[in-house]
Design brief:
With about 350 residues, the chain is mainly β. About 5% of the residues lie in helices and about 50% in strands. It has a single domain, classed as Methylamine Dehydrogenase, Chain H (7 Propeller). The strands form seven sheets. Strands 1-28-27-26 form a four-stranded antiparallel beta sheet. It has a four-stranded antiparallel beta sheet with strand order 2-3-4-5, with no helix packed on it. Strand 10 and strand 11 form a beta hairpin.
């Protein structure tokens, strides 16, 4: 059944184009070429404030649970933020050049980063220090942990290298014809890869074989996001052609092209995308649905529309956000990031 899209919340946040976006259960944060990170409280639908620690374009943002945010920028810094008070707990000079990408291990104890100094660095987040440095032959622009934390991948131009955690060695390589701009783990062993060739491809991390490919947009694909909804795998894509598209993926028929659930033309040049889950509405509407189903008269089936927000970023019109109304996933938040300075946090 097709999903519907309706506008919800729009805010012009930055004085330059957006470069990164991240979400947790309550907040959306955006990073920009104006060197600031803007915070939005999505439950209240208001701008919450700004973070001004960096002196360079914000290149990457990632939440861990409800208590911490990591940010990276062209100034070479990685900052660890407490999201309760929005204070910078630690600022690390991570790379000699730009920080191009970072990823937090599912345990919250480790993070990986890559930069323009041709290094891959492992960070001990419990102690806030560097744990390992690996030299790369070229600059990587994407790094990502698998959901189970057993492997990670790096992207260099049109090449994906798959690493195993226990050996920190490359177990396989995936190569595409054109530059890769976005990558997402669909499962622990299946990757969705997209880029300048307008095509989305699903690869097996074990065999590095392409399981399925299909043309998704008319221009380069800038970002991919995925989530699970009651056993249904959903993929959301954003492209320079201005379209945001939502796809239904059947993992049991991975070789089949995903079906298009809905699309919206933002009439903007999109740069990044994230999905915010409205969990409060989900709880309320579950109760409403249970009450409605107990009524005797069920001649017409009740359809309860629950909310899930898709936040996409517009290069020309600064920030644009919309709401896409779908049935949300039921996903537990991970445990908070372990902190070294508990006394400092409690003061």
């Amino acid at each position: 059944q097709p999903w519907t899209v309706s506008p919800d919340f729009t805010h012009h946040a930055h004085t330059a184009s957006l470069s990164a976006v991240a979400v947790n259960s309550r907040y959306v944060v955006t990073g920009s070429r104006d060197e600031t990170i803007q915070i939005y409280d999505m439950k209240k639908k208001v701008e919450h404030g700004a973070l001004l620690q960096h002196n360079g374009t914000i290149t990457c943002l990632e939440f861990y649970g409800t208590a911490h945010l990591l940010s990276g920028a062209e100034d070479g810094l990685i900052c660890i933020w407490n999201t309760k008070r929005w204070e910078c707990l630690k600022s690390i000079k991570a790379h000699k050049g730009h920080v191009t990408s970072l990823s937090i291990h599912p345990s919250g104890k480790l993070a990986l980063s890559v930069g323009t100094d041709k290094t891959l660095r492992t960070w001990n987040l419990v102690e806030g220090r560097s744990a390992f440095i690996k030299n790369l032959k070229q600059n990587a622009h994407i790094i990502k942990w698998s959901p189970d934390g057993e492997r990670y991948v790096t992207v260099i131009a049109n090449k994906v290298d798959v690493y195993k955690l226990d050996t920190a060695s490359i177990t396989g390589t995936i190569t595409t014809e054109k530059r890769i701009s976005s990558l997402r783990f669909i499962t622990d062993s299946i990757l969705a890869v997209a880029g300048d060739d307008k095509v989305i491809r699903f690869y097996s991390c074990d065999s590095q074989k392409c399981l399925c490919e299909f043309k998704a947009h008319e221009n380069r694909i800038k970002d991919i996001y995925s989530f699970e909804r009651e056993g249904q795998h959903v993929i959301v894509t954003a492209s320079s052609d201005g379209y945001v598209k939502v796809w239904n993926l059947d993992l049991k028929k991975i070789k089949d092209v995903p079906s298009l659930l809905c699309e919206v033309n933002t009439k903007a040049r999109l740069t990044c995308l994230a999905v915010w889950l409205d969990q409060t509405s989900e709880v309320k509407e579950n109760c409403d649905n249970a009450a409605a189903s107990s009524q005797a008269n069920e001649d017409e089936k009740l359809s309860v529309v629950r909310k899930k927000k898709v936040c996409w970023m517009n290069k020309n019109d600064k920030t644009t956000k919309r709401e896409i109304k779908v049935i949300p996933a039921k996903r537990k938040l991970e445990a908070p990031l372990q902190k070294k300075k508990k006394k400092q946090d409690s003061s």
